[in-house]
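Extended Data, record A-kinase anchor protein 7 isoform gamma
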Amino acid sequence: EDQKEDLGQEVSKKRPRETPNYFVAIPITDDQVLDKIEDVQELIFTKEPDLLRAFLPVQTMHLTIIVAHLATEEEVKKAVLALKQSKAKVEAILQGKDHIMTFNGIGQFNNQVIYVKMSEEDQKILSRIAEAVEECFIEMNLDISGSKDFKPHLTFLKLSKAPRLKRRGFRKIYSDLYKEYEDSYFGTEVFTQIDLCAMHKKKQESGYYYCECSINVGSSSTEESKEQ
C-alpha cells in the first residue's frame, strides 16, 4: 500500500493532471436494456424537449471502469498491453462463469447525471474487476489519475453534455421527468467484453466509440482460447 502511495506522489510531482482522453469500458448492447433507456429518453423529451442535447445515444451505452490520459502512441500501446494483461485477473474473478449484470431503477448524481442502477452484488463484482484493470494500468505507469472512485452506473443523460442549457439556467434534472420509470426493471446484460476506447477519435459506424483494443471474458472467451 505504501509503495502505491509513493508511486502516486511521484507521478503527481512529475506531471500536472491531464484531461483524460481514453477510457476502459464494459459495452452494454442488450436490446431490452437499450430499448427501455430509449423509452425513458422519449418520455423525458416529451416533457422537456430542451434536454435532447443532454441525452447519450444508446449506441454508446457503457459502464466506465477507468479513465486515462494517454499522451503518445507509445502510451496507447502500453494501455493495450495493460488491458490484455488484465484478462487473466478478470477471468480469475469470474472463475470461468458468465456474469449476468442486472439493471433496475434510475438514480442520479446531483440531479445533473441520470443513470440506470445496478444491483449491489453486481457493483461488488465490477469493483473487483475495475481494481484488477487499474492495477495493470498502474504497473505500466500510465496516468489514470482522472479516475474517480468506481461506482458502476449506466449514464443516459448528463447536463454537462449540453453547456448551453446551463447558461440558460438549466441547473437540475428533476425526477418528475422520469418518475414513471424510477423503479422499473431494465433487463440484463451478460458481461463478455472490456474495451479500451478513445474519447476523441471518430466513432465507429455502429455509433459506438473507437476501440483501440477489446478483450473477451467469461465462458465464451475460455472456449476461444481452447480453439487457439
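Summary. Confidence is low (pLDDT under 50) at residues 1-15, 223-228.
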